[in-house]
């Protein structure tokens, strides 16, 4: 297992060229998102939202608000991955499965809801920071899930957030963090680009 996850991380690329003849099924999209939602989030907020842009018509609408990036049309699916604001308001609902299985008791549930409300209710910057954090961690899970299923992916920050929100009916609480094109490779993708040496980015204290 250690070797398997190492290989996935080292082989993952940020793809631009997708095979337009190969499609991803709805069940595969659902499985990718199921695995994405295994990412961690503060208080188990699960403050994320996924829109799978799968049809040709929807891809063209997204492409129009993402600076015409062709990979949106060529990929089998492009996800709009959002973090959500005011996560404290839906925390009790998010914790219900943990409460029902006995992983959390009522006192701990109530304590978490109270702490989250105190920490986020009057702090819009913290809410936004948390939305971006959660969406980003879920996106990384989604990329590795795609890699593990034999697919490739390409994350994108080049889009008009207001245009995406309007075109795909996002709410005021939805923060589009990034787009992620997913599909199968066509020729022309770069390999993973070299990274800085560990000793330039790591301090051990």
TrEMBL record:
An MF annotation (GO) of this entry: oxidoreductase activity
Protein keywords: Oxidoreductase
Domain (Nitroreductase) ranges: 9-184
Superkingdom of the source species: Bacteria
Keyword Oxidoreductase: yes
One Pfam family this sequence matches: Nitroreductase
InterPro entries the record matches: Nitroreductase, Nitroreductase-like
PANTHER family to which the protein is assigned, alphabetical: NAD(P)H NITROREDUCTASE YDGI-RELATED (PTHR43673), PROTEIN DRGA (PTHR43673:SF12)
Stated family: Belongs to the nitroreductase family.
The name this protein goes by in its record: Nitroreductase family protein
UniProt organism field: Sheuella amnicola
């Amino acid at each position: 297992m250690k070797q398997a996850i190492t290989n996935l991380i080292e082989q993952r690329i940020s793809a631009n060229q997708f095979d337009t003849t190969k499609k991803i099924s709805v069940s595969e999209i659902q499985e990718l998102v199921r695995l994405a939602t295994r990412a961690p989030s503060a208080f188990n907020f699960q403050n994320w939202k996924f829109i799978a842009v799968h049809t040709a018509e929807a891809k063209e609408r997204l492409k129009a608000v993402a600076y015409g990036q062709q990979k949106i049309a060529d990929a089998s699916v492009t996800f709009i991955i959002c973090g959500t604001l005011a996560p404290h308001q839906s925390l009790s609902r998010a914790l219900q499965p943990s409460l029902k299985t006995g992983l959390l008791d009522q006192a701990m549930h109530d304590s978490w809801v109270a702490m989250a409300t105190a920490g986020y209710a009057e702090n819009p910057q913290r809410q936004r920071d948390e939305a971006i954090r959660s969406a980003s961690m879920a996106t990384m899970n989604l990329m590795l899930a795609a890699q593990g299923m034999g697919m490739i992916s390409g994350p994108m920050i080049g889009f008009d957030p207001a245009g995406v929100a309007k075109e795909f009916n996002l709410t005021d609480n939805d923060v589009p963090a990034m787009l992620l094109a997913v599909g199968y490779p066509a020729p022309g993708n770069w390999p993973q680009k070299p990274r800085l040496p560990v000793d330039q980015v790591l301090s051990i204290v």
